[in-house]
Design goal:
Length: 495
């Protein structure tokens, strides 16, 4: 049976997967969700015999039902190739009693590569399927990692342009350098004077701007998104949870059907939502641990049932999680509201108007799959140091949030269920914070010098993505105010 997609906010639009990918955001400002979640039609033992590419096909075919087998397999083969530095694509590493799912082996050394390597291929295939003549303009806000991965994926892809907004002082030095050195005739990167939430809100407003849409149509353009609001980002993320479980089964770390827990460092909620979808499609996940940093809006939500962004914004050592409006949470709210789009829309209106909303007691009961907690920057630094000193294993600051929260969960619950900790970025993206955590003597050194030291003490090679940007020229040196984003888009398209 075909899967169709509708908005979380209630207009009656029903579109195919390819149409949802092309649009990015529903016309009423809601997010596209499938009309049902299918159940996996392969057993865990069958998945355990598959490589990443085959796993991706068996998972994604269930949700992207208007793509032919040939189309989908072509997209997968183009995405998951030698761009990744390991044939396994997403290996699981056992460290002590925990299992780290390493999602940073792609071209930009962060987990966003897992979905953004395939999204351009899904989108260009979708454009052909739907006879789209306009040039597709990818408009994206980034807290650090999505931007570079999207730029890398869409650079010089025919029929597309890509514009990335990032918070000028809200990403690591290496993250910024990765973006501003990006080549590609169809690319532009702009630092905004504001935080990530300002960038994300601005992008959503541009998607909803009827005057801008008409202006673009006259010139042969249409928007789409590479953010995790795009269902074409979310579906590929389900794959690596299935693949991780299959790896544990293949290595005899678990028995078939045995439940596992998953810990996800969480900002915009897309990555953990993919795990939740995997659970609802039949993967034996018991508990979903939502790990927050000092911007603990999600921790407070799971503790109280109240989502409240009215708080100070904290710049932390895990900048990709410095987020107060977790866009993908809307898909979960829609689900626990009984897929009542009107109820969900009212909550989102409250968020827009008052900066907060409260779910009902009945809805809160449906959050029992989740556990929320947060880790301070000091706790994360201690975890990085402890793992290095105990096992010689070096993790980045975002993974450290997850690992530190997992420690708290075990202390609180004594739950010894085997647990996968999602490792979302290479430590080489955050050398200053990682090295200062290992030894305070590194605190004042420059990021790229510390990359050499990290390679030495961690017995690792500097990833090509990091080595390459050391001497790469800056291509994008543009800034704008958060209220100047519309003009920036027009200026880019008039080139």
């Amino acid at each position: 049976m075909d899967i169709f997609y509708g908005s979380t906010r209630g207009n009656q639009e029903r579109v195919s997967a390819s149409e949802a990918i092309l649009q990015g955001l529903a016309k009423d400002g809601g997010l596209f969700v499938p009309d049902r979640l299918p159940v996996f039609d392969r057993t865990a033992k069958e998945f355990a015999k598959m490589n990443y590419q085959d796993t991706a096909y068996e998972v994604m075919k269930l949700l992207l039902t208007d793509f032919t087998e040939e189309e989908l397999k072509d997209c997968i083969q183009k995405a998951y190739d030698e761009k990744f530095d390991t044939p396994s694509i997403a290996p699981v590493r056992k460290v002590g009693e925990s299992y780290y799912l390493e999602l940073f082996h792609g071209k930009t050394v962060a987990f966003k590569d897992m979905a953004l390597s395939i999204l351009p291929h899904l989108m260009t295939t979708a454009a052909k399927k739907n006879h789209v003549k306009n040039e597709i303009v990818i408009l994206t806000a980034t807290s650090g990692d999505t931007g570079k991965a999207a730029l890398e994926g869409f650079a010089d892809v025919e029929g597309t342009r890509i514009l990335v907004f990032y918070p000028k002082n809200g990403v690591s030095a290496i993250q910024e350098r990765q973006m501003v050195t990006q080549k590609g005739k169809n690319t532009r990167v702009i630092g905004i004077h504001g935080n990530f939430d300002d960038a994300q809100t601005g992008v959503k407003q541009l998607f909803a701007d009827a005057e801008l849409a008409a202006w673009m149509r006259e010139r042969g353009y249409q928007f789409s998104s590479a953010n995790s609001i795009n269902i074409g980002r979310l579906v590929p993320q389900i794959v690596y949870y299935v693949y991780a479980y299959a790896q544990l089964l293949r290595e005899h770390e678990i028995a078939s059907g045995e439940g596992i827990n998953v810990v996800v460092p969480t900002g915009n909620f897309g990555n953990i939502l993919a795990a939740y979808y995997a659970k609802n499609m039949g993967l034996p996940i018991r508990k979903l641990l939502c790990a927050s940093n000092d911007n603990k809006v999600l921790y407070d939500f799971f503790a109280t049932g109240i989502y409240d962004k009215n708080r100070d914004f904290v710049l932390t050592t895990s900048p990709s999680m410095d987020i107060l409006v977790s866009s993908n949470l809307e898909r979960l709210i829609y689900r626990i509201a009984g897929e009542d789009a009107q109820k969900n829309a009212a909550l989102m209106q409250s968020l827009g108007r008052e900066g907060k909303y409260a779910v009902t007691g009945e809805m809160e009961k449906q959050l029992s799959d989740f556990y929320g907690n947060y880790a301070t920057q000091a706790e994360c630094a201690a975890k990085i140091r402890n793992l290095y000193e105990s096992f010689g294993y070096v993790i980045d600051t975002h993974t450290a949030v997850a690992a530190a929260v997992y420690d708290k969960y075990r202390q609180e619950t004594a739950d010894e269920t085997k647990t996968v900790i999602v490792s979302t970025a290479s430590p080489f993206k955050f050398t200053k914070s990682v090295m200062a955590a290992i030894d305070k003597k590194y605190r004042d050194e420059e990021d790229f010098a510390l990359a050499d030291e990290l390679a030495k003490i961690g017995k690792m090679q500097i990833p090509p993505a990091i080595a390459r940007i050391r001497t790469a020229p800056v291509v994008h040196d543009i800034q704008c105010g958060k209220d100047e984003m519309k003009e920036a888009v027009k200026e880019f398209l008039l080139q």
